[in-house]
Specification:
By secondary structure, this protein is mostly helical. Helices cover 78% and strands 0% of the residues. The protein has one domain. The longest helix is centred in the middle third of the chain and has 26 residues. The two termini are 19 Å apart.
């Protein structure tokens, strides 16, 4: 499992693409937080809400870019057959690639702690709510885990990396905001809107962002991750 993970990390950071993707993630979130956050510079109010609101949408494109070549390139070049011949199970191959994707996201998130430190120092009030900030980061990691599982699943469907990226971005977008968009239709308002919204990630992510760690939210994220990993494993086993 670990050799597969290291191989994926080397592949992602072997060129400028990996560094550029992480750089764009940090730049976009930094600009929104420090340039368009009037609450900080006009009122001295310490908040990372703009970052935690925008980060999922940036991850929605970053993570498919990370995972799009995970299996599609293996299928295209024929190296997946070589990988299968090694004394390692399909699930270990899958989990090694999944772990590598999460590590890349973690590497991208670590520098954002500087945002929190800077905001806290610039604030005129009591500073950041440490508990809520920690909860929001935890929610962001869970969200990244879901997106990575979806990205790997889409990469296992095709040998074309671009198609895998588009499918993953679409799938992540639908599961992140699709249920909330449907719940806001006039036909569901006041009846099924709350329950429909609970199907989407945004509902549970928003709950964790408030610093409330509910077991139902945790079960939801872990269930979605497990579902897409099992679907991916099934696709890979069909190729044997």
């Amino acid at each position: 499992m670990w050799p597969v993970c290291k191989k994926e990390l080397r592949q992602f950071f072997s060129g400028l693409t990996g560094y550029l993707a992480i750089g764009v993630f940090l730049a976009v979130n930094g600009v929104v937080l420090f340039v368009f956050n009037d609450n900080l510079f006009d009122f001295g109010y310490a908040t990372l809400d703009p970052f935690f609101a925008l980060a999922p949408w940036v991850l929605l494109f970053l993570i498919p870019a990370i995972t799009m070549r995970s299996f599609s390139d293996e299928f295209r070049t024929g190296t997946y057959e070589i990988l299968q011949a090694q004394p390692i199970s399909t699930f270990r191959i899958l989990f090694g690639k999944y772990l590598a994707a999460l590590l890349v996201v973690f590497i991208a998130l670590v520098p954002t702690l500087l945002y929190a430190f800077t905001i806290n120092q610039l604030a005129a009030d009591q500073g950041l709510d440490t508990g809520a900030t920690a909860g929001a980061y935890f929610g962001l990691i869970l969200l990244a885990g879901v997106f990575a599982a979806i990205g790997l699943y889409c990469s296992s469907l095709t040998s074309n990396a671009v198609v895998a990226f588009l499918l993953a971005a679409l799938g992540c977008g639908l599961i992140h905001y699709g249920a909330q968009a449907i719940s806001q239709l006039p036909i569901f308002l006041g009846t099924l809107d709350y329950y429909l919204e609970m199907v989407g990630i945004e509902f549970h992510y928003r709950s964790i962002r408030r610093g409330l760690l509910d077991s139902r939210d945790l079960i939801y994220f872990l269930s979605v991750i497990a579902t897409f990993l099992l679907l991916t494993q099934r696709n890979l086993q069909r190729r044997k």
